[in-house]
Specification:
The chain is of the alpha+beta class and about 325 residues long. The mean pLDDT is about 95.
């Protein structure tokens, strides 16, 4: 372990989740410094490649959310530099980041996913928005949930209770992406389930129950202190928690992820677990569920970060 002493945390990025990433990056940097690891924090910009070449760290710890960090591009660049890094490989990131593709894969594994349709902006232009919206509501039923087919932090995501509200939700959604994923709105209890692998194989962390005060887990509810209540352990029965844990483990394995991930699910009133999405760069801020779950499992967040970095270092 003594061999690891220089880590570069990548945080920020050009995405709507810049601020969250800066917070997550700070959290990881402080956690590593507590154990005596020398840490630098850098953003992803035109100076990065020179910096990596001139002053190479031993390990890169990317803590970038949204397209900048989760669509695989930055990992592809790190592969090109030959620099060891924490987290999933580019192809796995690309797959997990594309929500409809990840859902299809999970459905193939027998996991329940929300019924839905993915439509590009052009379809609404070309085919006529009113007719298409009617068809969506008829086919999927109300209420609906609209979100970009790739994205994060609930940007451009909204519940929809009537066909009249659907167009505004789609307009908001297309501000964040070129295609909208329109889904049946799943009712139940939302859980975030972290999976951690520091060398002995992936292990699920205790699920965290998420109860936003306004009922919607949007950006404000996520990052404003006190706007959301978190329960860990979650207040569900053991069977439901075991099923949610199983879904997170299936996602981590099926999507080919590495080191850490977080899967978002909703447990319906019938106890069925519905898969929403998996994140390859889960939030690591003070209010994020992954560090919360690690603490609840009796893990020291500093040790978790150091073990992840050390494992990447050993991979070389
Ligand atoms: N089909 C759905 N039914 C009900 N709520 C949903 C649905 N899809 C997403 N949500 C809600 O929206 C939030 C954001 O959706 P998610 O797919 O996790 O995207 P991201 O976190 O990448 O923005 C979820 O945490 C959940 O609260
Ligand atoms: Mg999510």
């Amino acid at each position: 372990m003594a061999d690891l002493d220089r880590v570069l945390v990548l945080a920020g990025g050009l995405s709507p989740e810049h601020e969250v990433s800066v917070h997550s990056g700070r959290g990881v940097a402080e956690a590593l410094r507590r154990l005596g690891v020398e840490v630098q924090v850098a953003d992803v910009d035109s100076t990065l490649l020179d910096r990596l070449a001139q002053d190479p760290p031993q390990v890169v710890f990317p803590v970038l959310h949204g397209s900048a960090g989760e669509d695989g591009a930055i990992r592809e660049v790190l592969e090109l530099t030959g620099m060891p890094y924490v987290g999933a490989r580019p192809g796995a990131c690309r797959l997990a980041y594309a929500k409809p593709a990840a859902k299809a894969l999970m459905a193939e594994r027998g996991v329940r996913v929300p019924r839905g349709a993915t439509l590009p902006k052009s379809a609404f232009h070309d085919l006529g928005a009113p007719a298409l919206m009617d068809r969506l509501a008829n086919r999927l039923g109300l209420p609906l949930f609209v979100k970009p087919d790739r994205g994060g932090s609930a940007f451009g995501a909204a519940p929809v209770t009537s066909v009249q509200d659907l167009s505004a939700a789609l307009v908001a959604c297309f501000a964040y992406g070129d295609a909208a994923l329109v889904e049946e709105q799943v009712q139940g209890t939302e859980l975030a389930v972290g999976v951690l692998d520091t060398g002995d194989g992936p292990v699920a962390l205790p699920p965290v129950e998420i109860v936003p005060d306004g009922g919607v887990y949007d950006y404000a509810a996520r990052y404003t202190a006190g706007r959301t209540e978190f329960f860990c352990p979650a207040r569900l029965d053991a069977d439901a928690l075991a099923a949610a844990t199983e879904v997170a483990m299936t996602a981590h394995r099926a999507l080919g992820l590495r080191d850490l991930s977080r899967t978002d699910v909703i447990v319906g009133e019938d106890g069925q677990v519905v898969f929403l999405e998996t994140n390859v760069a889960p939030g690591l801020t003070e209010t994020s569920t992954f560090p919360m779950a690690a603490a609840s499992a009796g893990l020291d967040f500093s040790v978790v970060c150091r073990d992840l970095a050390h494992q990447a270092f050993l991979r070389g």
